[in-house]
Design a protein that fits this description.
By secondary structure, the protein is an alpha+beta fold. The protein has a domain of 216 residues: Roll (Thiol Ester Dehydrase, Chain A), CATH 3.10.129. Helices cover 43% and strands 17% of the residues. The chain has 9 helices and 8 strands. Strand 4 and strand 5 form a beta hairpin. Helix 3 runs parallel beside helix 5. The radius of gyration is 27 Å and the shape is elongated. About 7% of the residues have low confidence.
């Protein structure tokens, strides 16, 4: 191509594609693309989105109940009937998106608390829905976090929650933030022994026997531990956790659920929760006393430490 031809081509290109209007449109499209990307990335952090994420599971449960042809059977199937409170694990899956991470590319400390709210709501719906239907509510009295290792940007992780222990006022909920490793490490590479059983609610509060950052036998890595403290209320009245859990069906057999369902049909369950439980026996969940006491050893130490720090 000769010099004159090249010059003519460039002049034509400038007249056709590099006009002020074309440049301006290209500029606006670029800005629009950047803004759209930012909006999409941060959509989960917009106002009211957190509320929708927390309440979505509650709305879904109520919708399923409304559409169920047999409400009583639905309640029974969605309640922890004849289950051990220490063995019910509630799992909620998350993704460490850019809106949840800090400038280092790790899940920010505030996001642990934000997403734990969503996981705890799922725990309440799965474990305590019958209590909630009687007007009960569970105020959160405190939460303590132990950060063990970072969760990296774009990682998929789970929050696994289970009962740690309870006393006459407080229920302690243990939550683990974990990710799945490609393959579990062997005992020779520094992980826990393959013959060691997975953590139970009361043993999980024991002193660690291995590196907490190591891959565990189930192929997960622990990143954070959280202990949440709840109490149970009917109006302004406090209901012992053992009573709230028992009327939801927890226990070695179906007897707690059958008694609770009978009172619900008679319309006396709320009166029972408002104080009638003081006159009745058989709601102690004594079958789990050993596990409860073992868990309370560490939960009490945690509470005493926080209280002592407040008085320091």
């Amino acid at each position: 191509m000769s010099g004159s031809t090249t010059g003519t081509f460039l002049n034509q290109l400038q007249k056709t594609w590099l006009t002020p209007r074309v440049v301006r449109n290209h500029y606006f499209r670029t800005i629009a693309l950047i803004l759209s990307t930012l909006v999409l990335i941060n959509a989960r952090s917009f106002p009211l989105v957190w509320h929708m994420r927390v309440l979505r599971q509650l709305v879904e449960w109520n919708l399923r109940k409304a559409l169920s042809p047999n409400k009583r059977l639905f309640m029974q199937k969605t309640s922890p009937v004849a289950q051990d409170p220490f063995k019910v694990m509630v799992t909620q899956k998350f993704w460490a998106g850019p809106d949840d991470c800090d400038f280092l590319g790790h899940l920010s400390n505030s996001s642990y608390a934000k997403n734990l709210d969503i996981a705890r709501m799922k725990v309440c719906i799965i474990n305590l829905r019958p209590f909630m239907l009687e007007g009960g509510w569970m105020p959160l009295a405190g939460a303590d976090y132990a950060f063990i290792s970072e969760i990296r940007l774009f990682s998929h992780y789970e929050v696994r929650s289970k009962v740690a222990s309870w006393d006459e006022k407080w229920l302690y909920l243990l939550s683990e933030f974990v990710t799945h490793s490609p393959a579990p490490q062997t005992a020779s590479s520094g992980s826990r022994s393959g013959t060691e059983k997975g953590p139970t609610p009361h043993s999980a509060l024991s002193l660690p026997k291995a590196d907490p950052k190591a891959t565990r036998p189930d192929g997960t890595r622990l990143h954070c531990l959280a202990i949440s403290r709840y109490c149970f209320k009917i109006g302004r009245l406090t209901v012992p956790p053992r009573i709230a859990m028992a009327i939801c069906g927890f226990g070695p057999d179906r007897s707690n659920w059958l008694r609770s369902a009978s009172m619900q049909e008679e319309g006396t369950l709320r009166m029972f929760l408002e104080g009638g439980w003081r006159k009745e026996r058989g709601w102690e969940l004594g079958e789990y006393e050993e596990k409860r006491a073992a868990g309370m050893v560490w939960c009490e130490k945690l509470k005493e430490g926080i209280t002592a720090l407040a008085d320091w």
